[in-house]
Amino acid sequence: MADALSPGATLYRPYGSVYPSLALPFNHRYAGIRPAGIVACATTEDVSEAIRWARAVGLPAVPRSGLGHNYAGYSTTTGLLLNMARMKSIVSTPMPGRAHPRVYGPMKVVHDAGTVTVGAGVTNGDLHPLLEDHGMFVPTGRCPSVGVAGLVLGGGIGFSDKMFGLTCDRLVATTVVLADGRAVKASKDTHPDLFWACRGGAGNNFGVNTSFTFQYEQFEGTVGFYQLRWSLDSVLPVIAAAQHIAQDTVGDRRFHLRLGIGTNGMTRTQIHANANVNAIGQYYGTVQELRAILDPLLKIGTTEERARNSASVRQVTPGEASVLLSATTPIDRFATKSAILDSRTLLTDQQVGAAAERLLDWPGSNNEDGAGFAMFALGGEINQVPPNATAFVHRNDLFVFAAETSWADYDLPDVAEANLHWLKQFYDDIFPGKSPEHAYQNFPDPTLKNWREAYYGRNYPRLVNVKRKYDPTGFFNYPQAIGTR
Ligand SMILES: Cc1cc2nc3c(=O)[nH]c(=O)nc-3n(C[C@H](O)[C@H](O)[C@H](O)COP(=O)(O)OP(=O)(O)OC[C@H]3O[C@@H](n4cnc5c(N)ncnc54)[C@H](O)[C@@H]3O)c2cc1C
Question: What global pTM score does this model have?
Answer without folding.
Answer: 0.97
